[in-house]
Amino acid sequence: MLTDHMNELTPEEGLVFVPLGGAGEIGMNLNLYGYNDQWIMIDLGVTFQDQCGVQVVAPDPKFIEENKDNLHALILTHAHEDHVGAIPYLWSRLRCPIYATPFTMEIVKNKLTEAGIIGQVELHTIPLGGQIELGDFKIQYVHLTHSIPEPNGLLIETPLGRIFHTGDWKIDPHPVIGNEMDVPALKKIGDEGVLAMVCDSTNVFELGNAGSEQNVREALIDLVKKQKNRVVITCFASNIARLDSCIEAAKQSGRFVVFVGRSMDTMINAATDTNYFSHIPHRISIEKAADLPRDQVLYVCTGSQGEAKAALKRIARNSYPNIRLDKGDVVIFSSRRIPGNEERISEVKNDLVRSGVTILDHKESLIHVSGHPFRDDLQKMYEWIRPKIAVPIHGEYQHLMEHGRFAKEECGVKKVIIPENGSFVILGPDEPQIVERVHHGYLGNDGHDMIDMYGSIIRDRQKLSINGVVFASLHWDQDKHKILDVQVSSRGVIEIGIESQNFEQNMAEKIFEFVKNNKKLASHHLEEEVRLLIRRQINRLRGIKPLVIIHNHD
Ligand SMILES: [Zn+2]
Ligand SMILES: [Zn+2]
Fold this sequence. Notes:
This protein is α/β, with parallel strands linked by helices and 554 residues long. It folds into 3 domains: 15-208 and 370-452, 4-Layer Sandwich (Metallo-beta-lactamase, Chain A), CATH 3.60.15; 213-358, 3-Layer(aba) Sandwich (Rossmann fold); 468-553, Ubiquitin-like (UB roll), CATH 3.10.20. An 8-stranded mixed β-sheet has the order 9-8-7-4-3-1-23-24. Strands 10-11-12-13-14-20-22 form a 7-stranded mixed β-sheet. A 5-stranded parallel β-sheet has the order 16-17-15-18-19, with helices on both faces. Strand 10 (131-134) and strand 11 (137-143) form a beta hairpin. The longest helix is centred in the C-terminal third of the chain and has 20 residues, at 498-517. The radius of gyration is 28 Å and the shape is globular. Residues 1-7 have low confidence and may be disordered.
């Protein structure tokens, strides 16, 4: 996975695209464009996972970190975590200015403030449709539609050609909040000629079009109107249009609206500061809502993915202060199930059902639409932009390959390049191709630091969690001629108690005998032989191969 060479590659010779994240996975986007020894970075995101004590993973930026003197800026398309989430973790390695439109900038400022580094970062807020000039790059923001305010495509103009970087998008004719897609601008971009389109692949396997927030709004209003008791809607806090629809559903059904969860507050504040919300009618606090009759309250909360610390999980466990659900109350999942979260979502649903709560999800009615383009949306975008080269990103390898095939066979694009993280893609002036693979990888947030997800810390944690660990300490006399004592202890190998004590003592005796009879062995050979002895014994006894650590005391 990691190739450490070729980091000296520069875009001297041509126009270059290098994804370091998001090409081979949905999440943690990091895209680089290079020309004439200069770089710009588009987006810097994370993925959330739960692996060996790491919850947040970001792309390893080492390649651009080593070229950071030539990095003009980080330019953000929109405020989703998979596009901005790594900024507080990685900015200090890059120390470049950041450009974003107003809503995205509010979210970024929040993150930088929490990280305590806001004073160090040069921030530029760009109006919708605005332009930036950075060395030989001219960048134009183009307004698209997605599932968050201000989703932007970027037209990147260079002396060697124009690239349209879509960011995340879909065609939503009625986005509820924010502008409609700027189709005339897209057609004009196409008319003026585009060398390459670097495009969202998330939903390439879905037929038809992604649908509109307006339809969800109507379905949610209808659904809430039918309910007789408490209603909880869980959705992504960043989907401001969805929150607005929840507010409207509350209004039309004579309910007060209550927002629950920290990220709800963050997103609502950002939306209010950037004029997407003004006053929210009928909004009340959690405390006040507790005294209301059951048919007068609508909670909107985080936790649709079953996240352990999110509001819904705590509500389902009956441990959220001042919120209580009873038999006959309803929880509406206005969200999609992100692959990997199935088990956690099921847990929350089981907890809710156990308390007599009714669950409604997309099976009931259209209470969620995706923010990413289905095939018909993609086809339209290719008709408008008409790129010479299609470069699918924002997808697993299967999505990228299918997107490439679709672009070529069904949208008439002549050349397709399927990048992977680290691909050094020449877009021009020569024949477009992948010429090398630069350093790429993953960094996980672990307490205070970002650690290498392919490094020994994670490898050891994996081994420990699967097979346990055995420690053996060898104690010698002063001249290291005579073994005096051996101590063995273990974790995760034998059930703690009499059984493990017997095993450890027995093992210590065996090692003692072995060392006494083989004390002429060189120290490192002796340690290796002891390690093998322990592993053989445990493998025979338990059929597992734990991590073995020898302390050879002088
Ligand atoms: Zn995304
Ligand atoms: Zn997005």
